Amino acid sequence: MSEKKKENLVVFWGWVKGDISARRIFKDAPEGIDVYPITFEQLLEGRWVESIGENFIRFLNAHNLDKVFIFGHSLGAPLAVHAAYAHPDRVQGLILSDAEGIYEPTSPFQLARNFLAPSPNSEFLLNEFVGSIAKITKHPLLFARMAWLAHHIDVQKEAAEIQIPTTIIWGEQDHLTPLYQGQKLHRLIKDSEFKILKGEGHDWILFRPEQLWQNI
Predict the structure, then answer these.
(1) I need a labelling partner for 143 at 20 to 30 A (CA). Which of 17, 76, 137, 207 fits?
(2) How far apart are CA 75 and CA 95, in angstroms?
(3) At what angle do helices 52-62 and 76-86 cross, to 10 degrees?
(4) What is 7-214's CATH topology?
(5) What integer pLDDT is reported at residue 2 of this predicted model?
(6) Which of helix, strand or coil describes residue 143?
(7) How many CB atoms lie within 10 A of CB 35?
(8) Helix/strand/coil for 145
(9) Secondary structure letter of residue 2 according to DSSP
(10) Cα angle at 77 between 118 and 154, to 5 degrees?
(11) Which backbone phi and psi does 153 adopt, to 5 degrees?
(12) CA 200, CA 91: separation in Å to the nearest integer?
């Protein structure tokens, strides 16, 4: 009997404690899926957003990966869109969750209000952020770039040209990237599938990662 082929999933995580959270969540991936988290340090090395595509390919080649699935959450999602747009020949499928990247002018006051708005598990998420202060102070320039991207990145043009099978998963009660932004992303990406998680917020995957595997 021939051995069943494994699928490779590259994870573009959200910012702050992303790499730590990714390791915790994806250590129990279903059998047959090998997970490769890519860090912001690896993605943003070099020239701003323009370097993401080449850094993605460098990562794949370093791990001897040919074609992969991509999962992108929050700020990681628009970076995943950039990578898929730049190198569609290396991407089998795209999974996006509560994505940044639908740019709208927003004041710092509104951003803070969105972040602090009551949502499922918001107290735990605030503790996660506070616990990340040491990491932020250790890499201030990197996190300054990430904060700028979170507020300014716009992938609507790239999304409209994506022809890779795409699944979009969104928390119904997401205050950071509201549901209507997910619906707009769904309209932009041709033939994408859009799934709404009732009662969930922006970081649902931290608490119920099994919903990812159930919806892809």
Answers:
(1) 207
(2) 13
(3) 80
(4) Rossmann fold (3.40.50)
(5) 39
(6) helix
(7) 18
(8) helix
(9) P
(10) 90
(11) -65, 140
(12) 28
**Residue showing tokens 């970076």:** 79
Cβ pair 154, 102 in contact under 8 A: yes
Is residue 109 classed as helix, strand or coil in its secondary structure? helix
8 A C-beta contact, residue 173 and residue 69: no
CA–CA gap between residue 89 and residue 184 (Å, rounded)? 25
Give yes or no for a contact between 98 and 74, defined as CB atoms under 8 angstroms apart. yes
Residue indicated by tokens 């999304």:
159
**DSSP at 98:** S
Residue 96, SS3? Answer: strand
Closest CA to 49 of 4, 22, 92, 81: 81
The token duo for 179 is: 């549901």
Residues 200, 202: Cα–Cα separation, whole Å: 7
- Give the SS3 label for residue 11: strand
This prediction has a pTM of 0.82
